[in-house]
Design a protein that fits this description.
Blueprint: E1 8-11, H1 17-25, E2 30-33, H2 37-44, H3 55-60, E3 64-67, E4 78-81, H4 96-106, E5 114-117, H5 125-138, E6 147-150, E7 169-171, H6 176-187, E8 194-196, H7 200-231, H8 235-242, H9 264-274, H10 281-290, H11 292-306, E9 315-319, H12 335-344, E10 348-352, H13 358-365, E11 378-383, H14 388-399, E12 402-410, E13 422-423
Parallel strand pairs: 1-2, 1-4, 2-3, 4-5, 5-6, 7-8, 9-10, 9-11, 11-12, 12-13
Length: 424
């Protein structure tokens, strides 16, 4: 197979799949497949609810078509899988979307076809979990009749500077020839260039440690924040001072959620434990980061008590629900931990987020978001996400939301140390 003969399908049109499909769709015919009929209908009408791709970019992808019909995939010979890989309630990898996608592809797979996975997995998952499903449903033999590749996604939701084409892409294939073809395919759209890994397992491992490294670094800063808070030292001031050294890494404390940093480490630790190694640093960092929501509420309750604000029955406003600023992504947002912890104290927690989809917040997290802000209502205000709208509000407008005696907790350094009552 050469590049001219590739008939491409993208399986999964979320935060990862759609931008990829759009870029390919500017150059070649692409079928974008998703099981979500509402998602397909919205894209066909020119709207992307994730806000990763605007209407103009969708229109530019003139060779991209959308479908929920699996029979349309029969015309394709290269499939790129971009479905989610979450964790379950026990913090174990949930490969269900990946297996379902592999089953769908397996039923239309033909001799000579290539399946490329972008979903984050542990090293070995592509060949140990996905390939057998492809073989089972196609009746074909791996690396004889069909082939595989792995090219980990590096999408950063909400980032309008680092886009799919401007981020260097790691590629790999199940044979040297397939690896070269996969690399050549991505080179057609990735202006930042590609890095061809020596094997699929290497590419899988590279992806999973990217976010594990960030998670561990943030855990260190979170622990330093706990220490500095006990010492009565402003953490941000310490980090700014330390940051004057050229090689000091600019991490900040906070909640660690999202579809990558709060999830990927569990894929690596799952694989490590399956081969008899119990990770220590990685899991310690995960425990610390997962407990930050509870810590924030403990600090808030202490501050309210010191000001003789009755905690039980109080009203607290949480500004922001998405997992990061200026982005509608609610996946694995750890702001939920703050809301749940406040509920444990019988506190009425109102959540306001101009970026979040209200029905989605209710469906995914059981949280009713408020649509308007009432001044003078709250016993405490927590700035949980640094949306531009909250920065624009400024100190006076945010303070005005509280009662005459209230506590303002700034998790994201939207305000200065002097302007807020509490900071991480």
């Amino acid at each position: 197979m050469n590049l001219d003969h590739i008939k491409l399908a993208i399986i999964g049109l979320g935060y990862v799949g759609l931008p990829l499909a759009v870029e390919f769709g500017k150059q070649r015919p692409v079928i974008g497949f998703d099981v979500n009929t509402a998602r397909i209908a919205a894209l066909q009408s020119g709207h992307d609810h994730t806000l990763e791709v605007d209407a103009q970019e969708l229109a530019q992808a003139s060779q991209l078509s959308y479908t929920t019909d699996t029979s349309a995939l029969q015309a394709c010979n290269v499939f790129i899988v971009t479905v989610p890989t979450p964790i379950d309630e026990h913090k174990q990898p949930d490969l269900t979307p990946l297996i379902k996608a592999s089953t769908t592809i397996g039923r239309v797979l033909k001799k000579g076809d290539i399946v490329i996975y972008e979903s984050t997995v542990y090293p070995g998952a592509t060949e140990e979990e996905c390939v057998p499903v492809l073989a089972l449903h196609s009746g074909l033999v791996f690396n004889v009749d069909f082939f595989a590749g792995y090219s980990p996604e590096r999408i950063n939701p909400g980032d309008k500077i680092h886009r799919v084409t401007s981020i260097q892409k790691v590629t790999s294939g199940s044979t040297p020839e397939v690896a070269e073809l996969v690399d050549a395919l991505y080179r057609k759209i990735i202006t930042a260039g590609t890095h061809k890994a020596p094997s699929i397992k290497v590419a899988e491992a590279a992806k999973v440690i990217e976010n594990t490294q960030r998670d561990v670094n943030i855990a260190l800063i979170n622990e330093l924040a706990l220490i500095f808070n006990k010492l009565g030292i402003d953490t941000e001031a310490v980090l700014q001072a330390a940051g004057t050294k050229w090689n000091f890494l600019p991490f900040r404390p906070g909640l660690v959620g999202g579809h990558c940093i709060g999830v990927d480490p569990y894929y690596l630790t799952h694989k490590a434990e399956s081969i008899g190694y119990h990770p220590q640093i990685i899991l310690a960092g995960r425990r610390l980061n997962d407990n930050m929501g509870a810590y924030v509420v403990t600090q808030l309750v202490k501050a309210m008590t010191q000001r003789r604000i009755h905690v039980q029955g109080s009203r607290v406003l949480v500004l922001g629900l998405t997992f990061k600023e200026n982005c509608p992504d609610l996946r694995n947002t750890r702001v939920v931990d703050i809301v749940n912890e406040l509920n444990e104290y019988n506190v009425q927690a109102d959540v306001y987020d101009p970026w979040a989809n209200g029905p989605e917040a209710l469906h995914e997290h059981g949280i009713h978001t408020v649509q308007q802000l009432d001044p003078g209502t709250y016993d405490a205000v927590i700035i949980a996400v640094a949306h531009d709208q909250f920065k624009t509000m400024g100190l006076a407008a945010i303070r005005a939301l509280g009662k005459p005696e209230h506590v303002l907790y700034d998790l994201k350094y939207v305000l200065t140390a002097a302007e807020s009552d509490l900071r991480l």
